[in-house]
């Protein structure tokens, strides 16, 4: 039973890398259906937070719960299986395969089929995987090797693979970094629409304030190993301290 | 369904292999060893598809051969039972060893495999009263489905058993590699992080393929011992493991057809080079592999594929390179 009102809840997280404090008593809660952007200076610990939430790194103190269930010490593969998927700053794809094969591998992982006489290309999920590629605007490159595709296309396929796991929560690390400015908003339009259709809540680390302002429902400002502010984009992005310390502009 | 043109030559070669005992019996001994080694090399090939090289797979070759030899000396001395015993012994050993080695990758994986095989080799050498030490064990000729055969007919039967198993296991490995479980196993080579984030343990995925690869080596080993009528510790020696990797690269690393093409080429070169240039046959083999690595990294199967593509482009008259090939795996590795 889910006793927690939050989809994901981090309490009192602490982790250090040598002398660097990436998280020092962090509390952050994510509400289902509310896309959260995490902003902050480079090296502040934003990606570390995603790593902790997906089990890649274990915090020295604190607790992470997903739908009220403690996942702090779980392996990434187990966390993935209960509904948290991850897309990466540098797309994590199977480089010797085509886009649709990458999707079918994800479908294979999800289904857990062990029959060695089924051809992966004939999986019943093929239509669903093509639909996901179509949703992220990559259906036309389905049969191309992923190494031949642009960074933007690879990022979208990385996200589509994560969505193939039918997660409730998708964690994305800078989904528009390395993408041409002209493509950024196009990609985010597709992405937010796809997430809404798939009923997936998203947490994304982002440096582009235009993206944050337009596509996040909530914003958390991560600085000095803590969440300094959390609120709507309008509240947070106009806060004088955020403008001065994170955005780097003049306070009006 | 149309028969793919690329498969015409391999089909002719298989038909020719089937006719060897009738039309070219002088090649039968060389080719029976080539087929049996080819089955074992298939095991190494499976691992190469996950990006891992083992310098210790002779362990499974040897353990199955000794399992078969022990069984052949018992009342259960039928060829079918021997092959099954070899398969089970090597698969179980593969599971046990796999639990350890699947934690490691690259050079550590290769050397740990080597270490396990050399431990087994030492046991075979030292436990003389059980294994016959360096002299090995003589393996009596088994029955086939309960029927006893003289040497000549038995060798013919064994040849066709080896050919049949080579085809069956080759087909099975192609199906396995194309299946979801086989594809997940192969992604260990390209992205373990993504695999973990798809809810799959890369270690478990690797173990599954490792057990298959051990079982294949085992089938090759038990057949070889049956053909030779004797098993010695050399079955598990590191040179045998190196030979398997050598043949896999020669045929086309990661290619199922390449395992057999490489094995046949290797045995033919070895036999005839040894006959005509007794002192330098290893040098000739080494030079042969060097040429393959430098000029045809896709191995013998890669050479065949590129010649086939060139011929097809020539006959189509376009002279253009084909585009839109969906996956290189489909072309180079079948």
From TrEMBL, chain A:
Keywords of this entry: ATP-binding, Nucleotide-binding, Transport
PROSITE patterns named in the record: ABC_TRANSPORTER_2
One protein family per Pfam: ABC_tran
One MF annotation (Gene Ontology) recorded for this entry: ATP binding
Domain ABC transporter: 8-249
Bilayer-crossing regions: none
Keyword Transport: yes
Protein name as it appears in the record: ABC transporter ATP-binding protein
Cited CDD domains: ABC_Mj1267_LivG_branched (cd03219)
PANTHER family attached to this UniProt entry: AMINO ACID ABC TRANSPORTER ATP-BINDING PROTEIN, CONSERVED COMPONENT OF ABC TRANSPORTER FOR NATURAL AMINO ACIDS-RELATED
SUPFAM superfamilies assigned: P-loop containing nucleoside triphosphate hydrolases
Tree of life domain: Bacteria
InterPro entries: AAA+_ATPase, ABC_AA/LPS_Transport, ABC_transporter-like_ATP-bd, P-loop_NTPase
Magnesium among keywords: no
Lineage: Bacteria, Pseudomonadati, Pseudomonadota, Alphaproteobacteria, Hyphomicrobiales
TrEMBL record, chain B:
Subcellular location: Cell membrane
Key word Chaperone present: no
Keyword Transmembrane helix in record: yes
Transmembrane annotation, as ranges: 7-24, 30-48, 55-73, 79-100, 107-124, 157-177, 210-238, 244-269, 281-304
Recorded superkingdom: Bacteria
Region (Disordered): 313-334
Membrane topology: Multi-pass membrane protein
InterPro entries assigned: ABC_transp_permease, LivM-like
Keywords on record: Cell membrane, Membrane, Transmembrane, Transmembrane helix
Matching Pfam families: BPD_transp_2 (PF02653)
PANTHER family associated with the record: HIGH-AFFINITY BRANCHED-CHAIN AMINO ACID TRANSPORT PROTEIN BRAE (PTHR30482:SF10), HIGH-AFFINITY BRANCHED-CHAIN AMINO ACID TRANSPORT SYSTEM PERMEASE (PTHR30482)
Protein name: Branched-chain amino acid ABC transporter permease
Organism expressing this protein natively: Jiella pelagia
Lineage: Bacteria, Pseudomonadati, Pseudomonadota, Alphaproteobacteria, Hyphomicrobiales
